[in-house]
Amino acid sequence: MTETQTRRPPAPFPAERAKTIASRGGPAILMPAAERPGGDSRVSPVLHHVHASGSVSVLLPDDHDLVHATGAAGRAEVAVMLELTDRAPVDLREPIRGLLWITGWLRRLDERAARARAVSIVDDRPDPRLLDVGHGLSVLRLTPASLVLADAEGTHSLRPHMFSAATPDPFATYEAEWLRHLESAHADVVDQLARHLPEELRGGRIRPLGVDRFGLRLRVEAEAGDHDVRLAFSRAVSSPAELAVELRRLVGCPFLRQPG
Predict the structure, then answer these.
(1) β-strand partners of 217
(2) Closest residue by Cα to residue 80 from 142, 156, 10
(3) pLDDT tens-place string over residues 29-38
(4) Contact 258, 245 (CB under 8 A)
(5) What dihedral do alpha carbons 248, 249, 255, 258 form, nearest 10°?
(6) Three-class SS of residue 240?
(7) Which of 14, 107, 163, 234 has the most crowded Cβ, counting Cβ within 10 A?
(8) In this predicted structure, what is the pLDDT of residue 40?
(9) Maximum separation of any 2 CA atoms in the chain, in Å
(10) What does the alpha-carbon distance between residue 216 and residue 228 come to, in Å, rounded to a whole number?
(11) DSSP letters of 90-123?
């Protein structure tokens, strides 16, 4: 078998994929490193936000155990891990596409720092719950020590500076809407993409799973199980117009118009 036949399709770097998951603001679970005997210490934050640096802001009720554990005026730290889940935007029977774990130290911010942090979050993610900071909600800052990404491309350990230097995929902000539209309004296009699949997978139900600057990912739901397939673009793309050209190329449209 030749090198061309065995080479994996190009994909975004692990730090970029991690930054993309973090930017989507999916479900999060906070887990203290020290488990309480006989209890479940998994916490669902009222709100969480991963900043570009990898630092995480977590909003919890003032009376939460973790708020008390971090001490008066935030002088104490607690070792924790935040788990972020990347869920597919279409209704799949196995919806989780990836997981990102951020491990580090959690510290409660004082009132002044908490309000400044809330204001910084508003710039990226306006959310009415931020108005409750100082009125029943406390802000805690998770300073990362390490990150681990697990997705279809593999499992990768990342240092905070690698995450900080990365940028999200250019299609991260509207991937969900685009994939839902592709499935609901262009099922024929999805079916035509089957010509790129291995023959043994073409009998399954083909679903759009993800899109990034390097390609389109499909999920094949078959009786024997689920299979993920990456269809590579002819080149990396960065705009909707370029994405449309590459999609037509994958479908086999003879009328390819280069973006202006």
Answers:
(1) 210, 230
(2) 142
(3) 999 876 655 5
(4) yes
(5) 90
(6) helix
(7) 163
(8) 64
(9) 67
(10) 11
(11) S--SS-EEEEEEEEEEEEE--HHHHHHHHHHHHH
Cβ(57)–Cβ(141) below 8 Å: yes
Beta strands 77-87 and 28-32 are: antiparallel
* Domain 3-164 identical in fold to domain 175-251: no
What is the chain's alpha carbon radius of gyration, rounded to the nearest angstrom?
Answer: 21
pLDDT digits (tens, 9 = 90+) for 35-77: 655 556 899 999 999 999 999 999 999 999 999 988 655 468 9
Give the predicted TM-score (pTM) of the model: 0.90
CB of 105 within 8 A of CB of 142?
yes
- Nearest-angstrom CA–CA distance, 60 and 215: 38
Query: Both tokens of residue 76?
Result: 């104490």
Planar angle of CA 214, 217, 221, nearest 5 degrees: 170
Structure-block tokens of residue 233: 């673009």
Residue range 175-251 forms a domain whose CATH class is alpha beta
Domain ranges of the chain: 3-164, 175-251
CATH class of 3-164: mainly beta
